[in-house]
What we know:
alpha/beta; Rossmann fold; 2 domains; six-stranded parallel beta sheet; three-stranded parallel beta sheet; binds NADP nicotinamide-adenine-dinucleotide phosphate
Amino acid sequence: METHKERVLGQVLDGRAIAAKIYDQLKREVGRLKSLHGQAPFLLSVQVGTHSASDLFARSQSRAASNLGIGYRLERLPQAVTQKELIRRIDEWNQDPQITGVTVQFPLPSGIDAREISAKLDPKKDVEGIHPQHIGQAVFGWSRIGTCTSLAIMELINATGADLYGKEAVIVGHSELIGKPVSLLLLDRFCTTTICHVATSDRGRLMEHVRRAEILVVAVGKPHLVKGPWIHPGAIVIDVGTSLVNGQVVGDVEFEEARSRADFITPVPGGVGPVVVATLMRNTVEAFKLQVERPNA
Ligand code: NAP
């Protein structure tokens, strides 16, 4: 006699549906701001060199901005642009009253110091949330402009309806754009938070940390680094990684095997990516409000 029920597969978190809800709210907000101030937010997206992933991201940004009534321009700079020239252009954009938000797409060429570039942006126009002021405010939980990807990850986790209080959260990857800021956001929600990185893997400890993760965020960029059988039963799995393998975009987690153990999991593509574009648009609206509400702050 069959004594156990077959486990139901984890629910796939639909990033496009979550993004659509954010756009509904933003559309109303942009309309309200336009009628109040006679001006709409304007996003300048900066791409240095050519990357197929950045082209795709820029197309999604352009489409989202146009649907919301946000102005948009893509500025392409050559791969060989110097640090000095890039900083000179940033100074110009910072002064330009038409431009209310600037996003510089990463990764930047190896000769460019990304930290200095982030620090040169006017924090009121920094819609990626990477200026040291925003990162510092995130420590206090004050930030009005968080990093887009960390905010998108929190939207996906919130969509599960899970109570995060006291949960074991494990983040794999400690980058300044994703791993570190999302660890602060999860800490703010009273998760017990562990951050894993390359040294965790090098010591052979990644599996033991992942195994106890009730909330797992993986942001590395190594296809299938996290194995399906490692997933804690009932976990929420957010796979941020994107790598191109044989022409296909794949994540950092073995999806099918992980889904058979998790309660919720993001697909790649179609999980985190669409929500990142939506949080970028929300930050663009927030930056505009910072400028019109407190122009001299
Ligand atoms: P990143 O700056 O290269 O950071 C990767 C992190 O992974 C680093 O902290 C690195 O640690 C760590 N790492 C490397 N190998 C590891 C290993 N074997 N075990 C554990 N940790 C390891 O990349 P990122 O900007 O954070 O992006 C991460 C991934 O997310 C990439 O695939 C990127 O394409 C993707 N992404 C997706 C979206 C989206 O919209 N879906 C948005 C942004 C980024 P060390 O620094 O110590 O080496």
